[in-house]
Amino acid sequence: MRKILTFAFFIFACVAIGALSSYANTPGEWYQSLQKPFFNPPDWIFAPVWAGLYVMIGVALSTTWFDENNTARLVVFAIQGFLNVIWSPAFFGLQSPLLGLVIIVPMLAFILLFIIMSWRPNRQAALLFVPYALWVAFATALNLSIVILN
What CA–CA distance (Å, rounded) separates 133 from 27? Predict the structure, then answer.
């Protein structure tokens, strides 16, 4: 029962933090006025993609939490999580694509580091982070393109 509650807590926490960050930093007229690259997806796609990713992130955290010798991976997880949380306020709140880029590049690096560090001890957590890494890599290219175009 303890494991189930831990899983539920971490999944809920990840989804709630992501939803709160999204709600507090909704793109407005400023974002709409920016030039965007041809590969910019429609705005409606971001919420469902992030919701699914936050569920997977919560499951990865839960499985890592119960691993032995998990301290270094939990630190890497916390760093990428912190960078994830501050990206939206930097990009949308401060209206700074450049600051967003400065945050998202190390965020992607820490996501990849988590995958590498988790590959042997917890393949499930590593694999759960692969879609997240792919999406953040795409978001990094999008962020860079917005910096260049504007």
Answer: 23
| pTM strictly above 0.70 | yes
Q: What is the C-alpha to C-alpha distance for residues 65 and 47, in angstroms, rounded to an integer?
A: 26
Domain 2-149, architecture per CATH: Up-down Bundle (1.20)
The continuous run of DSSP H or E covering 101 comes out as helix 97-118
Question: Which tokens hold the place of 107?
Answer: 């965020």
User: Are the C-beta atoms of residues 104 and 140 closer than 8 Å to each other?
Assistant: yes
The encoded tokens of residue 116 equal 């590498």
Residue recorded with tokens 């939206």: 88
DSSP state of 42: P
Structure token digits, residue 12 = 């809920």
At 51-61, the pLDDT tens digits run 999 999 999 99
